[in-house]
Amino acid sequence: MSVKLDLRPLDYVETESKPVHLGRIAALVILVLFVGVSTITFAYGLVLSRSLRAERVDLQMSIDRMQEQSGRMTAELRRLQAQYQDYGKALAILQKELPSVEFLGVLERALPPGVWLERVSISAGKVAMAGFAFTENDVVSFGRALSEAPVVASVGFPVTTRVRQESGASVRFSLDCSIRDIMSITPAPEDDGQVQEVASR
Prior knowledge:
By secondary structure, the chain is α+β, with helices and mostly antiparallel strands. The chain has four helices and five strands.
């Protein structure tokens, strides 16, 4: 019978007899890494979530501002459309009435002393006149003065009839002419000279 005795110190023997558990160490390392990665991921997700929330708020505010501006632009566009329609109506009235008013001024200046009118009819760019004159030359002078006016496009040939009246007139006449559109009327040369003279001053 043989007996083995370990004569080494007791502390050394106990320390040497404890086994190293690699599995536990690996599990602990994996656990630490998992906790660290989870913490970092959670922190990054929290920061990203706050950033996205702030961006969403800014985007919503931008959308609200754009909607408000769109409403204002729509209202302004409607106002401008109404104003444009008013201008169109005013221009149509101007194109229709202003040549007639201009022609009446021309008629007053072109009418010679020996001619007076009995009737003047203005419609859609045409003017029909009837009246009396002492001689045919007065009627011709009247037609020539009208033809020189910028607002008058053309003057028809006068139709005259000899009559006898107490006023002394011996010719009854009728005369037709056409007037220009307001957009086609060009300033007279003397008007251009006056404008250039004023501009030079």
